[in-house]
Amino acid sequence: MEQANLENRARERILPTLVGAGVPRLIGWGEVVSAFSRVVNIRHSQGLLVSFVEETRAMTYLSVCVPALFRNQERRLVPGGRVRFDGQRLITEGFVVDFLGRPTWQGTLTRTDVRAFHASKVSLVKKALLLKGRAGGFLGLLRRDEACNPFVDKAMKVLGGIQSAPSRGARFKILSGLVGLGLGSTPSGDDFIAGILLGEQTLRLLLPMEAKPVAGTQDAMVPWSMEKEDLWVAMNRTNDAGKTLLWQALQGRFPGYLLEAVRSVSDAEEKQEIVEAVERAVGHGATSGTDALTGFLFSIEGRL
Fold it and tell me: What's the mean pLDDT when you consider all of the chain?
């Protein structure tokens, strides 16, 4: 009955520019939890956040790019509003967003994306991150000079046990201790782990192409298997934004800004292009971009 009432009130049909491939798979009710000038976040009953975004660069596997929504004040969604996920459409009180036949966005890294990514670029990414990265999150793991950051201190203690872990599964169990650690809409620990998983995927794609891996040894890679079970369980310790990020990253789905950063570094022919790619990435969130790239470097450099 409630769904029928909602459909009767939703008279306008909106076609999105892009649909995250995970959104049509969701069925059930959701509630608008936050609304900003360029993004609206809806909490699905599974505890995952689905976002309406204005720009394609903000896309994720669980986002829908709907520029028209942000151009018309009458279409604005407000916190507390109810929406219905109905497979190929999302129904609100004022309009229906129709996914059927629209272009989809997978959020995956491909071999083409990293075809020119090689070891010499890793040091340039690190230098750029140390120069352009934002303090307050996990950048202190690289700088080691960030005073009075209890989250960095905790992260260093957690990561200190990884090298001596007896197995890859044990390494992930230790790494799960970072879930939910830090401040911000997405805790720094969650962004850091997403970066680690992105670095792992980068290495997986590079290994068949190069005789020498970027990270020194293949064993340095984080496993893509059920050995990540402790991370799946730990997701319940963080907030909705962190859980959503990890839920995607554990399935090899990453935010658009991170994929764009890896592609740009791979395609870069000059040092300045790498600096600019890093600068764009660290502009995401307060420290999210910085924390994710820090995790990416930890993975690529074989510290895990």
Answer: 88
